[in-house]
């Protein structure tokens, strides 16, 4: 099932919902379609609307302020788009830039996606010690970045330019 990005009335990314839920919000006049799938339409007995890819709520929803996205292994893989930070191949593991044996922590800035071969080759050394430079530096995504990164790759590529991620 395709996910639909939900924006607050102020155009801030809030969450993703299923396509069915997005259609219900639009039909109840609680949201408007900002971007639709070019080839998909939702048809019913009295309804024919484009399938929403991005919707914006009509009423502003107050959201408690979250300064940081919570760290997780899955989040690191999604942030790095499942690409190894050392060679660019498909990543299946998470590597600590400063190894845990040297005091490295589970943080956004100390972990990168890695293929199993490079993770094993680097072992408990830093990238400098192992002679394996990072292709890109790790970054800490904002909660909105984390939510956008969680979208499927084809959905992410189809988003409007003004929703593009700066750090990705």
Task: Describe it.
- It comes from Streptomyces indiaensis.
- Keywords: Endonuclease, Hydrolase, Nuclease.
- This is HNH endonuclease.
- Residues 71-120 form the HNH nuclease domain.
- With 168 residues, the chain is α+β, with helices and mostly antiparallel strands.
- It has 6 helices and 6 strands; from the N terminus they run E-E-H-E-E-H-E-E-H-H-H-H.
- The chain folds into 2 domains: 3-65 and 146-163, no CATH class; 73-130, DNA Binding (I), subunit A (Orthogonal Bundle), CATH 1.10.30.
- It has helices at residues 19-27, 73-79, 116-122, 127-130, 143-149, 153-157, and strands at 3-7, 13-18, 31-43, 48-57, 93-96, 111-114.
- A hairpin with a 4-residue loop joins strand 3 and strand 4 (48-57).
- The two termini are 25 Å apart.
């Amino acid at each position: 099932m395709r996910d639909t990005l939900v924006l607050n009335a102020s155009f801030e990314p809030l969450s993703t919902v299923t396509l069915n839920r997005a259609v219900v919000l639009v039909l109840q006049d609680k949201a408007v379609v900002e971007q639709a799938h070019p080839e998909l339409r939702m048809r019913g007995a009295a309804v024919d609307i484009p399938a929403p890819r991005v919707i914006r709520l009509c009423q502003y929803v107050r959201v408690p302020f979250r300064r940081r996205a919570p760290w997780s292994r899955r989040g690191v893989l999604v942030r790095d788009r499942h690409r190894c930070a050392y060679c660019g191949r498909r990543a299946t593991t998470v590597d600590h830039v400063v190894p845990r044996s040297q005091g490295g922590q589970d943080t956004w800035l100390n972990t990168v996606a890695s293929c199993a071969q490079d993770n094993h080759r680097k072992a408990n050394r830093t990238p400098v010690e192992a002679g394996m430079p990072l292709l890109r530096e790790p970054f800490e995504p904002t909660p909105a970045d984390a939510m956008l990164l969680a979208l499927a790759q084809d959905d992410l590529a189809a988003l409007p330019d003004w929703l593009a991620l700066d750090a990705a």
